[in-house]
Amino acid sequence: MLHTDIPTGADVSALMVARGPASVSIYLESSPLSEFVEKSKLTFKDQLKTALAQVRESAQDREARLNADKIEELGNELLGDSQFWVYLSNSLAVFITPEGIRTFRLPNRLPQSVEVADRFNVKPLLRSITFAQTAFVLALSQNAVRLVEVTADLPAHTISVYGMPTDAIDALGVPSIAGRAPNGRIQGSEGQKVRLHQYARAVDQALRNFLVGHSRPLILVAAEPLASIFRSVNSYSNLLETGIRGNSETIGDAELADQVRPILDEYYAAQLTDLSSRFMDLEPTGRAQKDLAEIARSATFGAVSTLLVNIESKATGHLAEDTGAITFDSEDDASNYPLVDEIVRRVYEHGGTVLAVRAEDLPSTATEAAAILRFAQRS
Length: 379
Known about the structure:
five-stranded mixed sheet; single chain
């Protein structure tokens, strides 16, 4: 079983703005299997040693040396917490300063890395919230309806929705949906179809009140003709075209989650394809950039609407606060920081959207990042 604690948007924002002379970011592969516990601990111990060497190498005074000692103490305390290492996921992210330590157990398989700077290396963490593997599932039939929440880190579970009918008869207040339609004239299959439309609208109304402010995908599980009828009255903007056909009454929450995950993978892949096509269309107009130096300047002035970043980017250096001009640094040490992380922070600061992707998912010939702009930049 995966034991995960996915960071929230607030967690990521707090890590992005944190500043300190000795901020350590460690990512390592881990495993929920007990036989890999010692390997994970050994990897973390080696990474901690690497980080401490960088912190101590850059220490110029007694306070800086004490910072290294505090970081070592916090890291060793984590190593000594036997219960923590028993419950892991596929990757582990650890952020340490002399003041404290934060850990996140992630379902994504992230590349191993160690960074020491005046800020955290948050970029790999973005992957877990870019494609959150989270959705609502509407399991709908004439005899039952339920809304199931599927997440990456918890078992799927049914949610209580205020005003949701228990079934078609409950929604309509009639002894049977097979009788005459409300106008008293239509009966048989036509009357039943009219009543199913009423039932679907009652379900949609309950969902509408519950889903206000949400943007998660909604996936429908239903048999025909109810599936088509519900789609015809649905008012939620992110109901996915791909659903699960069949009798939802016979599918448990856990089985629903298993069937939903491939649909979510397709949904995320389609998003990347659409963004890549949009980038290619906008690049000739000056509203798309793939050069990191250009993107840094655009991010600084709030021009970036959507940013795709390579989670494995190794570019380090500094960004000028006022202009966004990049100074690249070939050495990865405590005197610099990951450039893409700082660009991401500035995009977030101006209300932009950031997606963390693999290198092969970047559009065109981009290698570090690709940006879609709110307006064309002057050369």
